[in-house]
Amino acid sequence: MKNLWRTMIGKAAAGERTKNGRETGIEVSGLSWQPEQGSGYILNDVSCMFENGKIYGIIGPNGSGKTSLIRNILRFVEAEEGRITLDSLELKGYSRKELAREMALVPQNTNMETSFSAFDIVMMGRVPYQERFAENSDRDREIAEEAMRLTDCYAFRDKAVSMLSGGEAQRVVAARAIAQDTGWLILDEPTSSLDVRHQVEIMEALTKLNREKGRTIIAVLHDINMASQYCSNIVMMKNGRIHSVGEAGEVLTAENLADVYEINFDMIENPGTGRKYYIPYF
Amino acid sequence: MIDIKEKNGKSRLPGPEMLLIILLFLCIVFSASVGSSDLTVKDSFRIIAAKIPLVGKHIDISDLKEVYIKIVWDIRMPRIIMAGLVGCGLSVVGAVFQGLFKNPLADPHILGVSSGAAAGATVVMITGIGMGMSGLGAIGAAAFIGAVITVFFVYRISCVGNRVSTINIVLTGTAVSTMLSSFISLMMAFNHEQIEKVYMWTLGSFSSSSWTKVIFLACMSFVCIAVILFFSRELDVVATGNDTAESLGIDTAKVKKILIVMASFLVAACVSVSGIIGFVGLVVPHSIRIMSGPKHRRLLPLSCIGGAVFVIICDTIARNAASPSEIPVGVVTAVLGTPYFLFLLQRSRRKLVA
């Protein structure tokens, strides 16, 4: 009965979406989370809104709760206080499989000790759509191959992932998330083990997905310059709380950065392009 | 060397499957014909075929002595089938644990199932409680109960909240195993006259096989393996990481629970009829993986057949090599398995990982 109700609401919402082009996005309100009872809160009364169609960067120092926030959004853990809604529907109302068709993750640790080939791994992105025991369809294969080309990992499609370098594995995992074909792409430091060229390539690929396919992107980033270059909006965190949210240009100020990272920053603007660069003092 | 690549994903060679199934039948027939009274392979094949429903009616074995029919069908066949089922069960569980715990060293005994079984069996052997029981036998029943209690115990301890931590469960299993082994040693120390019996049991043997035990084991294997095969895709994804599996829509906690419970029941059933046979669950899945690749949908069924072949061969050697006495089958599996395994390891350039 509950299920039926949910699918009815879901369908109604979907209908509305196509009519008005209006999706409500992900809303986090009053979220406080601790890993175990009495272990102390990692997230403290976090409220923020992720609107559809944008590119969000979550930044903040180590231990500020960035990863915890996205783990809550993905419902890997469930907080007792506060709530998270996806398109106005509480996260608890979705099944695991439904969520997997809404949100894809590129985790922080992409090191895999298995002999699956890169292609096998990307193909796993299709699991949320496949019936048990079903073979991979031609369409699944096409989607996977396209995703691999997008993140520049098609060349080593048959290589075992345990043999890949850290950066190659990260690109394979990014391709898997893209192959999952979800409205939301959530990335936990997607560029941490990439060289500069591949960092830019991944970020460009994400921007392209955002622009051409309307994917919403939430990325935890450590590189402030990457964030300022590619993100439309920034969520800045400190000590398990939201420090400031808003458009990239408003949030990324020398004062805010100094406040959050406790180190001073210089901001330089390229007079030709108008791009801003942030340089920390050592 | 490596494998049959799914280049376009469609055309798969049925090669290894067919080869292994043919090998399995050859092993069964050959094993049924060798022993203290030698029959020709042809005669043993006729006896086995005559017992198969439908086909059997057309095969006339009236020219063969009644005693030979008895030897093949009532003495050797239950033993062969049981060896096959145990090999099958142990290999599948080995493959499941290696994937689930992301640990290439995981084997079916890692959760303490086997030492639980041994402890149960030892108590019965030493105290002699219920020795008159028929069917599965008092020792088998005690071993099964011991195994199930141990796993339940290990499982409960290693649950954190609603979740099973894989590191916790492996560590708890190992610790409980060690404790139970010491308990067995202690009991043996106080009961010198039973030492040999207990010791031989822990090395594994199929000498007490019967059709009753075969039926028990076949039912258990069928249910447990069917459930395990049902989750082959989940196992693939879980082997690449828990967070990944969750983000791909898999309820990792639930899958782990079901698989651990099923695998444990299967090992408990195997150990209770045969004693502790080491090495099968480690070597067979790794050898098969070199041939099948890491996908569990192929790995698990192939491990089943491969495990059956391996243990049947080992048991045939165990009962014939030092005739009229027997070598414990657990010794044969290790002595035979190690060089073969090292040979494979040497030859394959593929890293051996779960």
From TrEMBL, chain A:
Pfam families: ABC_tran
This protein's UniProt keywords: ATP-binding, Nucleotide-binding, Translocase, Transport
Superkingdom assignment: Bacteria
Record GO terms (molecular function): ATP binding; ATP hydrolysis activity
SUPFAM superfamilies for this protein: P-loop containing nucleoside triphosphate hydrolases
SMART domains in UniProt: AAA
Domain ABC transporter: 26-264
InterPro entries with a match to the protein in the record: AAA+_ATPase, ABC_transporter-like_ATP-bd, P-loop_NTPase
PANTHER family: HEMIN IMPORT ATP-BINDING PROTEIN HMUV (PTHR42794:SF1)
Protein name: Iron complex transport system ATP-binding protein
Protein source organism: Anaerobium acetethylicum
Lineage: Bacteria, Bacillati, Bacillota, Clostridia, Lachnospirales
UniProtKB/TrEMBL annotation, chain B:
Record key words, sorted: Cell membrane, Membrane, Transmembrane, Transmembrane helix, Transport
InterPro entries the UniProt entry points to: ABC_BtuC-like (IPR037294), ABC_transptr_permease_BtuC (IPR000522)
Localization per Swiss-Prot or TrEMBL: Cell membrane
Gene Ontology BP term (one): siderophore-iron import into cell
Cellular component terms (Gene Ontology): plasma membrane
Transmembrane segment boundaries: 20-41, 80-97, 109-129, 136-155, 167-190, 211-231, 258-287, 327-345
A matching Pfam family: FecCD
Keyword Cell membrane part of the UniProt annotation: yes
Entry membrane topology: Multi-pass membrane protein
CDD domains listed in its UniProt record: TM_ABC_iron-siderophores_like
Single GO term (MF): transmembrane transporter activity
Family: Belongs to the binding-protein-dependent transport system permease family. FecCD subfamily.
Protein name: Iron complex transport system permease protein
